[in-house]
Write a structure and sequence with these properties.
- The protein is α+β, with helices and mostly antiparallel strands.
- It folds into two domains: 127 residues, no CATH class; 39 residues, no CATH class.
- Helix content is 26%, strand content 36%.
- Strands 2-3-4-5-7-6 form a six-stranded mixed beta sheet. Strands 1-8 form a two-stranded antiparallel ribbon.
- The longest helix has 13 residues.
- InterPro entries: YceD (IPR003772).
- Pfam families: YceD.
- This is DUF177 domain-containing protein.
Length: 178
């Protein structure tokens, strides 16, 4: 993380208003994270930081692409990224993560490094099943052919007439008892 100083934002001296930042990176960004799911990729991050007395709201817009390996063919392919995520940093006594979108930071925190957040947002955007676009298109076509259609249970008049004709004649006698 020490080489990711470009992603550090000094928040202590920021005024309480909206600030905009832009970061661009490539393959070297992913080298800084151990056991990285991603090794190659390029992306641009547009970050809007909205600081107030009680919290900091971070809005990330990440665009670009990362290289993934297809699970079926083991061929590399570029996976496009278009990510919008929000994060809220609230001031409190000690650092704590409340939810995925809300963290508490100390009022004495002088700076934040957004590199880890960017890496996590990109990691979450990667699909569990990584299919080459060529295979994903054929899988979609296969699914369309095998779609099951469920009825709401309401049958038209034609359907009921056809069912009546297909009924075993022995049951017609029982219908007369009604």
């Amino acid at each position: 993380m020490k080489d990711l100083k470009a992603y550090t934002i000094e928040i202590l001296n920021l005024s309480n208003k909206r600030h905009e930042y832009e970061f661009e990176s490539g393959n070297s960004f992913f080298d800084h994270f151990e056991q990285s799911l991603i090794h190659k990729g390029t992306f641009t991050v547009k970050l809007i930081l909205d600081k107030s007395e009680t919290m900091i709201q971070l809005s990330f817009h990440i665009t670009g692409s990362v290289e993934l390996i297809c699970d079926r063919t083991l061929e590399p392919f570029d996976y496009p990224l278009n990510i919008n995520q929000k994060l809220i940093l609230k001031y409190g006594e000690e650092d704590e993560e409340l939810t995925d979108e809300i963290e508490i930071i100390s009022r004495h925190t002088q700076q934040i490094n957004v590199a880890q957040y960017i890496y996590e947002f990109i990691g979450l955007a990667i699909p569990m099943k990584k299919l080459h676009p060529r295979l994903a298109q054929s899988a979609l076509q296969e699914n369309e052919e095998g779609i099951l259609v469920y009825s709401s249970g309401e049958a038209s008049n034609e359907d009921t007439e056809q069912k009546d004709e297909a009924v075993d004649p022995r049951f017609n006698i029982l219908k007369k008892l009604k």
